[in-house]
Amino acid sequence: MKTLRAILAFLAGSTLALAPAMKFIRYTHHNALAPAPASYIAIAAALGVVFSLIGGYAAARIAPQTPHGAGDAIVFFILGCACWSLYISPGRDHWFVFIGILLMTPSVYLGNRLAS
User: Fold this and answer.
1) pLDDT tens for each residue of 97-116
2) Which of 16, 17, 27, 58 might form a disulfide with 52, Cβ 3.0–4.6 angstroms?
3) What is the pTM of this model?
């Protein structure tokens, strides 16, 4: 049961952390690897930070036996996705990837640590 809760915490936390910013980009019909105005980047970054904080907090609350494990797994998942995006799309504009690396991963970490 402990493992199942940890997996559920990872899935719920990563969905809460990543989905809102990605849905915002999709609904506005913008390419995340294309140049964007500063106001658009600021809105995407704010969504990413707020929901990453919530995702990290939720992960720690769902799996109280292993709160740091779920949060750390989300951090490494975001970092892995960001590195993969950098690898498969060289020469593109990577503003969303850098938001993930520089803002979203610390927010997940902070939200996870605040809950435990």
Assistant:
1) 899 999 999 999 999 999 87
2) 17
3) 0.88
